[in-house]
């Protein structure tokens, strides 16, 4: 089993750790990296340095559909004939993305930002470019499924939150857990709602439940997709859960101090990020609003805040504790 750092051009994360697991049919990759010539050179060259040829890869299991994880899966398949597997929930999103025209995506973003309370200028600036959709998978996984890895036991553990179909992969014969973006050693993954004002999902609630599930697997060695390998994934999962519970309590208290309901955009501007709101790039403000929306929705599901439908934008206010 090896790891290959695959760069993410222009991204502060730096790289995605792609893992290669030996198999009699050829290596199986956990994730593949961003679809970019430099990333492809790093992946194929990194495998070659290990004595592996990308043309011998038998499969790519993707922890989730984001472009820094699934972007090169299609190119690996073209080079080797490998299968691509991901959770059925993310596979459904990939199919939707492939059917969604770019102009429809722009209209979707504009309307979503408007309903969140962003002004016209802010909405225009916050609209990020849509990366090309990842390749459609050949195989769809469900919770508990074993990945096609002869001689090993690599089991899918459904851990929604970062995406609806995010999976961790438990290498049961080695007491290791490939955590994707679900549990990272120093940072926490983005958990947002898109569109921001959806009422039928609770991604942060699902994320917290998924952290409990990972914690219950015990003190396994963690092999994340970013940063570095670390021990005792259970302890880190509990730490991340505590962080979000504190964040939820601060948000509830903040809303309780305000006499009038606030839009999602106003809430996002008041929350604490890794830099002040005024210093966040427009696209990062859009992501922050998605995360604010997920925290508001979690509080709403707990009966601690209530949404108020408005003509221009949805608003939220705190209920008595």
Automatic annotation (TrEMBL):
SUPFAM superfamilies cross-referenced by the UniProt entry: Metallo-hydrolase/oxidoreductase
Domain Metallo-beta-lactamase: from-to ranges: 15-226
Region: Disordered, residue numbers: 118-141
SMART domains in UniProt: Lactamase_B (SM00849)
Domain of life: Bacteria
Pfam families: Lactamase_B
Protein name per UniProt: MBL fold metallo-hydrolase
């Amino acid at each position: 089993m090896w790891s290959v750092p695959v760069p993410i051009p222009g991204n502060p994360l730096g790289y995605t750790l792609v893992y290669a697991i030996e198999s009699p049919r050829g290596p199986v990759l956990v994730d593949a990296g961003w679809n970019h010539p430099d990333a492809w050179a790093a992946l194929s060259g990194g495998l070659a340095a290990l004595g592996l040829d990308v043309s011998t890869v038998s499969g790519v299991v993707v922890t989730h559909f984001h472009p820094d994880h699934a972007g090169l899966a299609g190119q690996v398949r073209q080079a080797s004939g490998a299968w691509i597997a991901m959770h059925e929930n993310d596979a459904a999103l990939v199919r939707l993305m492939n059917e969604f025209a770019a102009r429809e995506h722009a209209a979707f973003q504009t309307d979503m930002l408007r309903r969140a309370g962003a002004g016209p200028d802010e909405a225009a600036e916050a609209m990020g470019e849509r990366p090309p959709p990842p390749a459609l998978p050949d195989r769809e996984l469900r919770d508990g499924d074993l990945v096609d890895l002869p001689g090993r036991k690599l089991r899918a553990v459904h851990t929604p939150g970062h995406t609806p179909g995010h999976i961790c992969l438990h290498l049961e014969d080695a007491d290791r857990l490939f955590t994707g973006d679900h549990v990272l050693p120093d940072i926490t993954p983005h958990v947002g709602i898109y569109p921001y004002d959806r009422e039928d999902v609770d991604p942060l609630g699902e994320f917290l439940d998924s952290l409990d599930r990972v914690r219950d697997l015990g003190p396994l060695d963690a092999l994340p997709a970013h940063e570095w390998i670390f021990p005792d994934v259970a302890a880190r999962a509990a730490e991340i859960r505590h962080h979000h519970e504190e964040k939820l309590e601060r948000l509830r208290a903040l809303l309780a101090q305000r006499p009038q309901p606030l839009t999602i955009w106003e809430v996002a501007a008041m929350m604490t990020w890794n830099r002040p709101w005024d210093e966040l790039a427009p696209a990062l403000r859009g992501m922050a609003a998605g995360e604010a929306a997920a925290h508001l929705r979690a509080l709403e599901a707990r009966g601690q805040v209530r949404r108020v439908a408005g003509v221009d934008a949805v608003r939220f206010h705190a209920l008595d504790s």
